[in-house]
Amino acid sequence: MKLPHVLRWLALFYLLTLVLLTTTGCADNIIVLDPKGPIAEQQRDLMLISTVLCCLVIVPVLFLTAFIVWRYRDRKGSTAKYTPNWEHSTRLEVIWWGIPIVIIGVLAVITVQATYALEPSKPLASDEKPITIQVTSLDWKWLFQYPEQGIATVNEVKFPKGVPVRFEITADSPMNSFWIPQLGGQMYAMSGMAMTLYLQAYEQGHYWGSGANFTGKDFAKMYFNVESTTQADFEQWVKGVKATSPELTLDDYQQLAKPAASDVRTFSAFPEGLFEMTVTKYASLHNHGLSWKDIQKIQVKE
């Protein structure tokens, strides 16, 4: 008769062990909890605070559920008080409704404050002048244009550490989501729209970037390399791209925009206004049967 009792405790022990292993053993691989910039750092703190507040309700409820099931189980010799007509307790009602309401209120205030503080298009406070990088989501690759430096890259983005980066994001493909987990949350890339996202890296390093929306066959290959460098190394990299890479022409862009995965590529120049052309061909024209050449002619006239 003692064997089932022992087995129950062994099952509980193994369950707790499994939970500990899955929640602590993989912690080093959760990159959103290892921020390298001010935005990601604040977002991590918000997640941790929200988790702790939720646990103030969830953990006691789980323990009380297990305790009640164990304490009031049907067994011989039970001394539990039998009250079949009990239906109300003001004290208990206040506890299990009042505490969650207070927690939800606190969580609401924190969330509203963080929402306004972390508004994506809000410039970051810094003594450094922001660098602008235009991002275009393609099937299944990312095109980065540096309007101030006059270069472009595919599946690779570099910028100086400590310098705010103003990402202007659009799509010339199905909607996707631009995401560098260690620097900040994701931002949707949508055709006909130019979204703004400010990010910054505290230190030099290599980070992982990815599309966070499922967009078809080669979605899994739609990731990009992110590197934060010193200002001198960034300028040297720009000079190297200008000196050794080919130009990106409109014909090249049309080929690049076709659905296919791509390796890292660099370009020493790109057509002026290419990003704006990509946005406006969906935003103002809605592609009303117009060809690429028709769109180019209209853009030139404007």
TrEMBL record:
Q: Which residues form a coiled coil?
A: none
**Known catalysed reaction(s)?**
2 a quinol + O2 = 2 a quinone + 2 H2O
Q: What is its main location?
A: membrane
List the CDD domains hit by this protein, alphabetically. CuRO_UO_II
Q: What does this protein do?
A: Catalyzes quinol oxidation with the concomitant reduction of oxygen to water. Subunit II transfers the electrons from a quinol to the binuclear center of the catalytic subunit I.
Q: Which residues form the Cytochrome oxidase subunit II copper A binding domain?
A: 128-240
Whichever gene encodes this chain, its name is cyoA
List the transmembrane segments: 46-73, 94-116
Q: Where is the Cytochrome oxidase subunit II transmembrane region profile domain?
A: 24-122
Q: Belongs to which family?
A: Belongs to the cytochrome c oxidase subunit 2 family.
The listed locations are:
Cell membrane
Cross-referenced SUPFAM superfamilies: Cupredoxins, Cytochrome c oxidase subunit II-like, transmembrane region
Keyword vocabulary terms for this entry: Cell membrane, Electron transport, Lipoprotein, Membrane, Oxidoreductase, Palmitate, Respiratory chain, Signal, Transmembrane, Transmembrane helix, Transport
What's its membrane topology?
Multi-pass membrane protein
Give the EC number(s) under which this enzyme is classified.
Answer: 1.10.3.-
Q: Which Pfam families match?
A: COX2, COX2_TM, COX_ARM
| Stated name of the protein | Quinol oxidase subunit 2
InterPro entries the UniProt entry points to:
CcO_II, CcO_II-like_C, COX_ARM, Cupredoxin, CuRO_UO_II, Cyt_c_oxidase_su2_TM_dom, Cyt_c_oxidase_su2_TM_sf, Cyt_o_ubiquinol_oxidase_su2
Transmembrane is among the record's keywords: yes
